[in-house]
Amino acid sequence: MRILFTGGGSGGHLYPIIAVLREIQHIAEEERILNLEFFYLGPDDFGTDFMNTLRQEGVLPVKVRCGKWRRYFSFANFLDIFNVVIGVLQAVWNMYLILPDIIFSKGGYGAFPAIFAAKLFRIPIIMHESDAIPGKVSLHTARIAKRIGIAFPHAASFFPKEKTALVGVPIRKRLLGGNLAESKEILNIYSNLPVVGIIGASQGSEKINDAVTDVLKELASEYEVVHQTGTANLEAIKQESQVILEFGHREHYHAFGFLDEGKLREFYTASDLIIARAGASTIYEIAAWGKPSILIPLANAAQDHQRKNAYDYAATGAAIVIEETNLSPHILLAEIKKVLGDAEHMKKMKEAAQKFARIDAAELIAREILKLGMHDVLPPPENIPAPTAPKPK
After folding, report:
1. What is the pLDDT of residues 180-190, one digit of tens each?
2. CB 53 within 8 A of CB 33
3. Per-residue model confidence as pLDDT tens digits over 22-51
4. How far apart are CA 181 and CA 192, in angstroms?
5. Assessment of whether the complete model's pTM goes beyond 0.85
6. Which of 100, 148, 315, 342 could connect to 164 by a Cys-Cys bridge, CB 3.0–4.6 Å?
7. Which CATH number fits domain 174-356: 3.40.50.10490, 3.30.1360.120, 3.40.50.2000, 3.20.20.70?
């Protein structure tokens, strides 16, 4: 059986593919399913590192051009029209050569060429939408998809109920299961102070970085701070932190450009409170660890999906939301102190996060892919809770 994966645009599209792929391999080994072949058709969004990861996981990556339509005026929109046309032609040719039995689409603009080719060749598709408000490619794919997995109840209103199931976001299980003492040692944390973990998505966030460095002296005096800055920002922030913490507490600040799987597991294990953007994968990783969080949704995210993700999650009681337009260093510091200073509130946030988590999402999707790929009759998807409209804070 040949399984083709597609998707792209951000780590939120690509890392769930790895999670689902690993579950398929695990299930195939347990149930002695032989002759599986894996392909990825999409853009090279994360360069050679991501492509090399796919190869290490037994996937043959096939790169095609993709175009992104921006919501603001840009000449790149006109140039990307040609990229889309070229990408579709590349996808059609490669789809003909591969002829997969089933396609798993994670959405994003990077999935469009493969979805176009799949429709042409009538290849069955299972798609997954991580965000509370679906993107344009997901809405298009839903018309022809056999199964649709969603992460937030609100997304159900955009898709046909009869083929949609609430499954959560596939997360890599290698991120789970760390040891607290070992994680602190790996991160060079040697005090008993509360640990504040700050992560600004895979590329980092300049606005969050700026807010953190402006109150870094106060933070480092009371907490251990583990800060994922983004690779491009790391050296500048390290130099700035050296000046800010010149007279003490340098040992309480730990900056990293990028967190690979191992470091990300240690980050979640050691942190008592997470400060993060509101990408769906990040939210579900935080929930899987049962960590209280402060979410700062990206203001210019497509369809404003991060804001909707954040408020849907915060409505459970697991997180606090600070709008990016309201983000200031002292508001951030005040919210950190408020959460870490209230043990009962932290306990309730942890419990809410654990209830929200769906660590079986990758396995559920993997089993559906195998069933459909082997042309089994699929049972109806599970019932979906009625969408709720969270109240803005």
Report:
1. 999 999 999 99
2. no
3. 999 999 999 898 899 999 999 876 656 778
4. 11
5. yes
6. 148
7. 3.40.50.2000
